[in-house]
Input
Amino acid sequence: MPRISVLMATYNRRSTLPHALASLRAQEFTDWECLLVDDGSTDGTLAYVEDVASVDARIQVFHQENSGQGAALDLAARQSVGEFLCFLDSDDQYMPDHLTRQHTAMLGNPTVDFAYSNPLLTGSPYVRDVETGGRISVDDCIVLGTIICRRQALPASFALLPAYGIDYFWKEDVQRRGLHVGRMPHATYLYNRTGDDELTKQ
Output
C-alpha cells in the first residue's frame, strides 16, 4: 500500500499536464499513487494521461462526465488507499522534495490531521477573497496543492464545499470537526497564476 495518495482533478489541461505529471514522477519520495480524474475534457487530455499511465503503474486514470472539481476529487478520494493524501493541480508543479517534506512533516507531528504551507508563486500574487469579494494575497490563502492530510480530515464530500475557495472552506470544515491543523514552513509547491484558474468547469 502506498504511503501517499496524490489526488488530481483535470479539465482541458492537455498543455500543462506534461509539466505537472513530470514533476510528480520526478519526486525523491517514490512511495505514492496518483488518482487522476478527467472531468470530461475535450482537448485530448484523457488520451494523454492514459498514455502516461500506461508507462507508470502508480498513476490511475478515471473519467467522468463534466461534474466539477469537487465531484472529481470525491472520485479520486474514493479510489485512493494511501495513509496520507496530497493534491496536485494540473497546471501546477511539485519541487523534487515536495512529497518528502510533506511526509516528514506529518510523521514528526502525529497529532496534526491537516497541514498546509505557502506556495512558490508564478504570476499574479492576488486572488479573490471568498469572504469580501476583494483582493487578497496568495500568502494569506490556503492553496489546495500545498495540503497534506490524514484520512480522517477528508470532508464528507468535496462537491458539497463551495467551488471557489474549496481549500479555504475545507480548512474551516476540518476545524469545526475539532481536528488539528498545522502550517508547514517549507515552500515546495509551484502555484501557476498566469492563466485560467479553474481546473474544472461547473
User: Anything to note?
Assistant: The chain is about 25% helix and 25% strand. Confidence is low (pLDDT under 50) at residues 196-202. Helices lie at 17-25, 45-53, 69-79, 98-108, 166-176.
